[in-house]
Prior knowledge:
Elements: H1 10-21, E1 36-44, H2 51-63, H3 78-85, H4 95-103, H5 115-128, E2 135-143, E3 146-154, E4 160-166, H6 172-180, H7 194-209, E5 221-226, E6 234-241, E7 254-261, E8 269-270, E9 273-274, H8 280-283, E10 287-288, E11 291-293, H9 303-308, H10 319-331, E12 335-346, E13 351-360, E14 364-374, E15 379-390, E16 399-411, E17 421-432, E18 450-462, E19 466-480, E20 485-502, H11 504-511, H12 522-527, E21 531-543, E22 551-562, H13 564-570, E23 581-582, E24 585-586, E25 590-602, E26 607-620, E27 671-684, E28 687-699, E29 727-737, E30 742-752, H14 772-778, E31 780-785
Helix pairs in contact: 1-3, 3-4
Amino acid sequence: MKSRFPIHFRPVIALSSIAIISSCSNTKFLKDGQMLYTGAEVKIENDSLPKKQKKALKAELEENLTPKPNSSFLGLRPKLYAYNIAKEPKKEKGFNYWLKYKFGEKPVLLGDVDKEFNKDILVNYSENKGYFNAQAKYDTVSKNKKAQVIYTVRPGNQYLISQVKFQEDSTLVNQEIQNLKDKSLLKVGNPFDLGVIKAERERIDNGLKEKGFYYFHPDNIIVQADSTVAKNHKVELNVKLKEQTPDLATKQFSIDKVVVFPNYNIRDVKDGKYSVPMSEDSLSKYAYDDIYVIDPDHKFKPRIFDRALYFKKGDVYNRKDHNLTLSRLISLGVFKFVKNEFVVSDSLNHKFDAYYLLTPRQIQSLRLETLGRTNSANYGGGEVNLNWTHRNFFRGAEQFKAAVYGAFDVQLGGAKDANNIIRVGANTQLSIPRIVAPFRFNSSSAFVPRTNISLGYEYQSRTELYTLSNLNASFGYVWKENVRKEHDLKVIDITMVSPLTVTDKYQEQIDGNIEKGIPPNPTLGRVVEKQLIFGPTYTYTYTDTTTPKTNNIYYRGMLDLAGNITGLVTGANAKNGDQKNIFGVPFSQYAKMEHDFRFYHKFNEKTNFASRIIAGIAYPYGNSEFVPYSKQFFVGGSNSIRAFRARTLGPGSYDPRTQNASFYFDQSGDIKLEMNAEYRANIYKFLNVAAFVDAGNIWLVNDDINEQGVNTRPGGKFSKDFLSEVAVGAGVGLRLDFSILVLRLDLAMPLRVPYYEKGDRWVLDRVKFGDSSWRKDNLILNIAIGYPF
């Protein structure tokens, strides 16, 4: 008899059955004499320890016990049950194999527990934390073929540090150790802790590495503890150099020669010797200032290494410059592998040569990309990109990128007369690994600063409406203070937008048609206006999300100042009819600022909380009465307020449904406020779920008044009642995280709609899940790639 269930449903059915049936005992699968290990408990016997200290010690000791029992959920062990019921597979594939060895867990038995070993671990750990002369014992509690081990630990009193001495002698290395003792981690009055002692040895080693002691090691330091010279559970610590410390570790080394192999291959080294003799005469033809660049084919200009290398001939070695040099060589982006070696060249005078062995990446690459996409505005489409990259364009590690692309978006549903979008364009960028400027720019960052020059062109067609030509050029700098802080300054960013064609249909929407009942809409006219936008932009980014912590933050701030100096010099004043032109086109003048702040909290390895606040304002003045359409703010869609379709929300309480359906997705504003909160949980490997709430809106700085004096977007201006116009949506999401790709599906519904009547904007009382028309209009499915923030 064939199964009624399709194959892809069987794992789901099996797991559901396991969740129910696993309430039955797993012990029936045990053999005679076997007992299921259910875990261990540590009891602390010491009445003098504070309750908080005892609780912390108990948790630390239990964490060190092995093995861990089978995982449980609400008192059940479904993974163990899956292992027990699954048949032994004949092959390493198939459902049985997955159920038994991928999902299931092998039973952890009492016989797997080495109780003596665990007892020793508990004693050693206690003593390492300063509880000298600790004692431990264990007992086994069993019932119904289940067993638990109870460990009882008598830690005694914790010893405190009474004195820290750094033993002195006349050697240079000891003198440097004495200079480091003021910042010692070993403090009088603190508990004795082996972990802190190890950290102190690492600290001393790091300090000595900064002073040229390249061959020193933390193990060369010994910290002797003496508990016999003091009373009342005190201990004295004596920090000194081990007598067996190698002589080489006590010598301070300086740099002799700096040699770079920019086209390194393992074949360049034979029997431990380089193909180029390292004598001064042999290296002389490769000399550049104080370094030698072994590049017979002249693939790289030597000056790029002079900027990246922090070691010069005669410098005392230090780890900071060592790591900084390696990081800067990597950040050039032209080398696949960066290796560093130090070889003693003069043992008498304690000198070594520094070798940098650099393996280049593929200098040129050609990549073809295709992608498909859909959005909540009922558009679906695709894009094709052809990208060419040259990573050493002028032999100075300059990266030159050129791309051509084509894209289309087709209306899949919704408004019948909405229009398709076609985009075709090309762009180029030259990234130079230094600051090209009339002033000197010094950076001690591990990241090489860059000068970026870009030029791009795009042709955009919105079928039956208009076609636009967009030319963009920019010149600016990008530099990072460290891994967390990045600056992006475009000294000049120019955009020229020109309409190529405007159809009668679109022009009619702009001018209005009384006979057809179409009111004038000057907002649409700004989309196809000739626009000349130029000025500086600055972006600052701070993030510590690359560091795994309980709490992480991300901040991005942007400032865009267009036409300010030109407007000031020319005395432009559009409101008074004195608008100035450049090349026959009025230039835009405005100030725009945007802030994006995100906070992430990690509850545990599988659950976390993410939140975001975006606030921005764009203010036109001088030569402009309105901010250019392309520079305004938009909300809604898969990465914004997900309960509303892209660009269909706002401004303010304005109802976009009153517009012609062709222009429903064109709502923009000068002020933006958005807030998002999302709870994320992993339920199985690549499968994640989320629950989220989004809120926000956009507003106008000035009312949209047409030539007839009519406000074309009533309710759109920012006012003191802006909080009552904040839209709210909520939903749930499913994320398939495959590491290289995250596929996201978010289902959202509006909770508060700002364009409803003021006292009737909360929509929970309108919910009609059984009504198909309500579901169609209010349940929004967003399909996207990557997380929303």
